[in-house]
Design goal:
binds coenzyme A; 34% strand; single chain; 2 domains; 12-stranded mixed β-sheet; transferase; Aminopeptidase; 8 helices; alpha+beta; 12 strands; YpeA/RimI_acetyltransf
């Protein structure tokens, strides 16, 4: 018999969750097969909450999961999946409902997730559970031949995070928030005209500036890995999106950020 239980109460370990994740994502829309350490680090950086997360267990095996994070009164779906041989039996629906009820019961105000445009099965499921699209997030890859730091200087993370907050017109998605990235090995640059970028190993986590020309300089300063990847740029940021397109960046994924507002049941 299949049981839907919280991860904390399931008696399962992160190893079993990792195995289930690898199987559920083996036919995913983009390749996603992290090794065990990367999987655990990603959960931890995003504030994985074992009490808020739910698994489907059959014969001591995890066959489906909703991995959920908590920050204050917000919850976030880090990842959900059902092992290939167990799909279409309503497991993801039951896991989602269990996670939403658990959130309601502890006074959570909103539940967030991202879904890749084109993952129609998952998007239909989230809509069925009551989620609506809050905004569109774009992912870009930009080839950058050589770094140019002439108008930028290296700076510390907290200074740069403050500058980005001053210039940014939108909140970073969960995986790029200051809280998620603060444990990473980051490289941060300040622009002399106002603006900043925070990156790590060719990934740009946050960027904002007063002028498009400063954005361009910041991208050039951060271009140490030959190419830059920007995951989850708010598509409403027309200055950054137009610049990236003008620089020839390739938009390789479009995501919908979805939100479920929960009633206050207390
Ligand atoms: C998406 C996924 C989790 C659904 O798991 P599942 O246990 O088969 O889902 P359910 O049986 O509960 O179906 C729930 C709903 O999802 C939708 N759905 C699921 N698979 C679908 C498909 N292939 N095509 C269309 N709709 C689909 C349907 O709305 C379905 O409800 P319905 O049967 O009442 O119409 C599973 O296909 C999966 O693991 N995919 C790969 C990983 C992934 O994409 N995760 C989501 C990342 S955002």
């Amino acid at each position: 018999m299949t049981q839907i239980v919280s991860f904390a109460g399931s008696g399962s370990g992160l190893g079993a969750l990792h195995c289930a994740m690898l199987d559920a994502f083996s036919d995913y829309i983009v390749p996603l097969q992290p090794d065990s350490d990367t999987f655990k680090a990603a959960l931890s950086a995003r504030n994985f909450d074992p009490e808020a997360s739910f698994v489907a267990v059959e014969d001591d095996d995890v066959i489906g999961f909703w991995n959920v994070a908590t920050r204050g009164t917000k919850r976030y779906l880090i990842g959900s999946g059902t092992r290939i041989g167990h799909r279409g039996r309503g497991l993801a629906s039951r896991l989602g409902m269990a996670a939403i009820h658990a959130a309601e019961n502890v006074g959570i105000e909103s539940f967030w997730l991202e879904v890749i445009k084109g993952n129609t099965g998952a998007e239909r499921l989230y809509r069925k559970l009551g989620f609506d699209v809050a905004r569109t997030l774009d992912c870009y890859r930009l080839d950058h031949p050589a770094p140019d730091r002439s108008s930028c200087k290296l700076s510390d993370f907290s200074t740069v995070a403050d500058v980005i907050q001053r210039y940014s017109t939108w909140e970073p998605a969960w995986q790029n928030t200051t809280e998620t990235i603060s444990g990473l090995q980051l490289t941060s640059f300040l622009h002399e005209e106002g603006g900043a970028i925070i990156g790590a190993g060719g990934l740009v986590h946050q960027i904002a500036a007063s002028e498009p020309s400063a954005l361009e300089d910041l991208l050039a300063a951060a271009a140490t890995a030959g190419s830059l990847t920007l995951v989850n740029v708010d598509s409403a940021d027309s200055a950054l999106c137009s610049l990236l397109q003008a620089l020839g960046a390739h938009r390789f994924i479009v995501q919908s950020e979805m939100r479920l507002s929960l009633p206050n049941v207390s």
